[in-house]
């Protein structure tokens, strides 16, 4: 995964947090969903971003959003799906 794409994901996640009034620092391992920082609507936005940016199909009904609970997990997931 390119540095530009990682930066794009980080910026979008930070934007989702800021839209919800969360301006706390975001570390790569910080929980996004289990911590309550982001909700299911934000998860949908994040999934759409990953689909658009990386061409990943996340439409499967059994997709587990917990695989996207931190920036580190998002990066690992994208790297795994990109081969």
TrEMBL record:
InterPro entries linked to this entry: ACP-like_sf (IPR036736), PP-bd_ACP (IPR009081)
Residue ranges the record marks as coiled coil: none
Domain Carrier: 1-82
Signal peptide residues on this chain, from the entry's feature table: none
Pfam families: PP-binding
Top-level taxon: Bacteria
UniProt protein name: Acyl carrier protein
Organism: Rhizobium rosettiformans
């Amino acid at each position: 995964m390119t540095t530009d794409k990682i930066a794009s994901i980080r910026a979008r996640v930070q934007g989702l947090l800021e839209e919800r009034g969360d301006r706390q620092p975001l570390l790569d391992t910080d929980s996004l969903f289990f911590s309550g920082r982001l909700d299911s609507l934000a998860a949908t936005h994040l999934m759409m971003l990953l689909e658009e940016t990386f061409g990943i199909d996340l439409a499967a009904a059994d997709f587990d959003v917990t695989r996207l609970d931190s920036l580190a997990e998002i990066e690992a997931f994208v790297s795994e799906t990109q081969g």
